[in-house]
User: Fold Putative transcriptional regulator from Acidovorax soli.
Amino acid sequence: MFKKSLFTLALSTLALSASAHQLWLERDATGPVRVYVGDADSAHDKGEEVAKLAATTQVFTSDRKQTAKLTAKEEFLEADVAAAGDVRLFNDQVWKPWKAKDGSYQAAVFNARAGRTDTKAVLDHELVPVAAGGNSFTLLFKGQPLANKAVTVITPDKWSKGFKTDAAGRIDVPVTGKGRYVLVSTHEAPAVGDVVIAGQKVAKLGYTTTLTFVAQ
Assistant:
């Protein structure tokens, strides 16, 4: 049975923020893409809290160099994506890097995807369908599967349940009704090389990835 578990999942992430936030994408058919900010199973941000992310949010299909134009609406950013198919998002400046207890800096990276057509990963941290249109997904980090990782599945009626990936990084999503499903997962990794975000060199990155799809 589904229960409210997203908050618990977010608290287990290494001090990303006092609030548990995600970025996720919603798209109806081939219409404009909506970028939401907040808690995918409850309330989302509005107004200036959304608008201020337009400058740092990249929305694209498969090439980060080909980003969509963003327009700030009251409850979401709207991305003008002409192409059909899956859409992705990247933002590493939702929050400024912060100092950890050991004196090093950490930063948060948000990845998001709408759709389950493409079976290849484009983002560093991404849930990828095993088969186009299917309900089984592999959680990948830089091309490698993440085993035994927590994934929260949020149903169209906003109920959520926590799952874990298997040894191959795979999760089978129980699709029990029509509507939009949201999957959320987090991962932490050391920054490899000289990683500079918002002018600050960081030593550790906390990733949050979301995937949305519509069951007909």
